[in-house]
Amino acid sequence: QKEVEQNSGPLSVPEGAIASLNCTYSDRGSQSFFWYRQYSGKSPELIMSIYSNGDKEDGRFTAQLNKASQYVSLLIRDSQPSDSATYLCAVKNRAGGGNKLTFGTGTQLKVEL
Amino acid sequence: DAMVIQNPRYQVTQFGKPVTLSCSQTLNHNVMYWYQQKSSQAPKLLFHYYDKDFNNEADTPDNFQSRRPNTSFCFLDIRSPGLGDAAMYLCATSREGNVGYTFGSGTRLTVV
């Protein structure tokens, strides 16, 4: 089982719709959860972090965390073509982890006009 | 602006010819990381420095080495690049604790 799993997509949504991106993780001791956006050929850019169960909103982005289900999600409201990118889920876990992040393979999002 | 800078953006090297990638930061973060990312794959941690303490991942090939001469700079040395080492190499920094990373722009390495 991979430590961090994401559906690779592509996930296609029409402009203005809500995009829902999902991620599961294997280490129950994980403490910090991050979403990065990565445009093709570019480096990852941090867009959201979440540390406790529930929802965290920042502009059009909402991160949701459910530690009991080992599940974290990212909602993008009013999706725009500029949101088309790969979204990487990253988890900071305890086991020998220190500050290390483990990344999923990412979900490719396509926002269509 | 405080940032993480990687040089060069694109690097072409010959099979077996040593190559060095560089990373500098103005964020004064004490932790620096090197990740390798191949197409459609997750970034894979190669090693990281916690201050001057070097931490190598168990599956990082011996062909990869790193140096951190001071807080601001970190280098990735590939002693004998193979075709399988072609990838994007990402440098990142962070403070300690439950915080995310700041990535540099990456270096795209091509091996010919």
Outline the structure in words:
The complex is a heterodimer of chains A (113) and B (112). Chain A is globular, with a radius of gyration of 14 Å. The termini of chain A are far apart. In chain A, strand 9 (85-92) and strand 10 form a beta hairpin. In chain A, strands 2, 4, 5, 9, 10 and 11 form a 6-stranded mixed sheet that branches. In chain A, strands 1-3-8-7-6 form a 5-stranded antiparallel sheet, with no helix packed on it. Chain A has strands spanning 4-5, 11-14, 19-25, 32-38, 45-50, 54-58, 61-66, 71-76, 85-92, 101-103, 107-112. With 113 residues, chain A is an all-beta fold. In chain A, 0% of the residues lie in helices and 53% in strands. With 112 residues, chain B is mainly β. Helices cover 0% and strands 52% of the residues of chain B. Chain B contains no helices and 11 strands. Chain B has strands at 4-7, 10-13, 19-25, 31-37, 44-50, 53-56, 64-67, 73-78, 87-94, 102-103, 107-111. In chain B, the strands form 2 sheets. In chain B, strands 2, 4, 5, 6, 9, 10 and 11 form a 7-stranded mixed sheet that branches. In chain B, a hairpin with a 2-residue loop joins strand 5 (44-50) and strand 6 (53-56). Chain B is globular and about 40 Å long. The mean pLDDT of chain B is 94. The A-B interface holds A 4, 8, 31-32, 34, 36, 41-46, 49, 51, 88, 90, 92, 98-106 and B 31, 33, 40-43, 45, 48, 50, 55, 88, 90, 94, 96-106, 108.
**Share of residues in helices of chain A:** under 10%
Structural class of chain B: mainly beta
Summed up, the helix count of chain B is 0
Distance between the ends of chain B: 36 Å
Strand content of chain B: over 45%
Order of helices and strands of chain B: EEEEEEEEEEE
Chain-averaged pLDDT of chain A? 92
Low-confidence spans of chain A: pLDDT under 50, at least 5 residues? Answer: none
What does the main sheet of chain A amount to?
6 strands, mixed
The biggest chain-chain interface is:
A-B, 26 and 25 residues
